[in-house]
Amino acid sequence: MKVNSLLFPHPVLGRKDDINGLFSVKKDGFVLKQLNENTVLSVEFVLQNKTIEDLLKNNKAVFVIEIECRSTFFRKSFSFSDPICQIELNKNLLRNTVSVSFYITINTKIQNYINENANEDYNGISFVLDAGDVIAYAGMVTFEAEILWEDLRRIFNIIKIRQDSEKEEGSAVFNLEGDIIYIDLSKKNYEYHENYKDENENFPSIYHSSLVLSCLIYALSEMMSNRGDDYNAYKWYRVLDSQKLNKPEIKELWNPSNIPQIAQIMLGFPFNRLFVSMEKIATQTNTTSSI
User: By the number of CB atoms within 10 A of the CB, which of 108, 214, 259, 291 ranks highest?
Assistant: First the structure.
């Protein structure tokens, strides 16, 4: 709901010059934490309007936070009596861009509503308000949801392997021009990949420490270069950027000189898994040879 573009029969604090006063989110009062399974929003409001303050004190009005995600069709309003609020949502409910709007609404019918700080155009006029009517608006913010299926521990959700139909042999090519990063393999190498990727449960660790790690290092290098803005509309860019914003250990290292280390953290230290997998493969080979 874009309050400024709507017509109301009654004055609304925060809509143009309807009412003198203040209703806003406190500076640094919107805090977003994207945890492993949940997204937590903490909000602190500032209100300066006696009429509305009295309605809140008498439980005739509530603070409302409305969350909407068009990608998942999720939309829900949360009501609070206190100006310090917290909401926790399962991350599966949110994807891509999420909007968060802030209101104060009436929660019971009021027969003669007059705001003493209303614009003089409303002098001497009272209004009938129904439960749910908006009497104050503090704007809207958006954020990019970091969702479970885009967790970089499952990197193949944003990095996929495909065949380069024009190349019989040769090196792999990393293609960043789209929501998904593609590792383009020559026909011969792609055939090897398809034939052996499921041959042994330890092979994925080899892919992660070779193909995927190399590709991620390249993507991070491009992201941090002066060409970074060319990619910021793509999903893979938003996923990597959300890792930087929400993981302190990555944010602290965010510098081109640390890209190999950042990539390893994002992938859950693939070299560790590589060496464990090599040991398992060697053990399996030795066991088979001794039979």
Answer: 259
